[in-house]
Every structure is written in structure tokens, then in C-alpha cells.
Amino acid sequence: MNNPEERLALAAKVREACIEAALEGYENAAIAGLCGEGALEVAISAMRQVDLDEIAADGTTDG
Question: Which domain of life is it from (predicted)?
Fold first, then answer.
């Protein structure tokens, strides 16, 4: 993956996966009754659990 466009596309996929995980984690935590700070901690934890191997192995770069 030496092509700058491919690297940028992969980075965009990782960013989108992190945003999706954070939003879902925050929403679930808020529904469960956690305070804002607790929900944020859950969102950060969700981002840490994003499966980077799955994103990298996908083989597509179309977001």
C-alpha cells in the first residue's frame, strides 16, 4: 500500500469505523443511564475495540 490515495482511503475507513463505534457506544451507555462522562468512557472503549484487521483485510477503499 504505497499509493497515497490507498493510504488515505484506508485512513478514512478507520476514521468512519471509529466514529460509528463511538456513536453507538455513547448512545447505548446513555440509554443505560450512564452520565455524560461515563458514556464518553464507553465511547472511547468502543473505538479501542474497532477491528483494524477486518478493515485492512476488506480490500476495498470505497469507504
Answer: Bacteria
Count of C-beta atoms within a 10 Å radius of residue 15: 11
Q: Could you tell me if 61 and 14 are in contact, meaning their C-beta atoms sit under 8 angstroms apart?
A: no
Domain regions of the chain by residue span? 21-57
User: How far lies 31's CA from each of 14, 15, 42, in Å?
Assistant: 26, 24, 12
Q: What is the mean pLDDT of residues 40-52?
A: 96
- Rounded Cα–Cα distance for residues 48 and 12 (Å): 16
Percent of the chain with pLDDT over 90: 83
